[in-house]
Amino acid sequence: MTRTHRDVGTWWPSVLALCAVWLFACFFLLGNLGYWNDDYFICSRDPATGEPFRFVMDRMTPFEPAGDPVLTWRPLYNITLGGITALFWDMPCVMHLIGALAHLATTFALWWLLRLLGRTPQAAFIGAAVFCCYPVA
Known about the structure:
Blueprint: H1 8-26, H2 37-42, H3 75-87, H4 92-116, H5 121-133
Helix pairs in contact: 1-4, 1-5, 4-5
């Protein structure tokens, strides 16, 4: 009997290991980290009233004049992060959970792509784990 990449016995250990790497690298202390330094300049709430005034990042800090788009190589980031930060400013754990889950989905997409390209589960795990811990790699 031949085994295929769809056989659960070959890939589930690498998926579980990838989840463990993700949990440690992206959601350490279950998101209870408080505000990160970039949360303050991404937040688009009025400091006096607390009301959100924009939901799409079109500049690096909300109080600069609009200019060239920021992080043009990350359009989904620009579209979603401003709104997430504005809506969940009072719940930083939720902000971090959403970011960590998005990173987990991207990590699994990379793992799946590596498997489709014919890599072994272990090689796909190493590639996805490196991306999970250091996404610029």
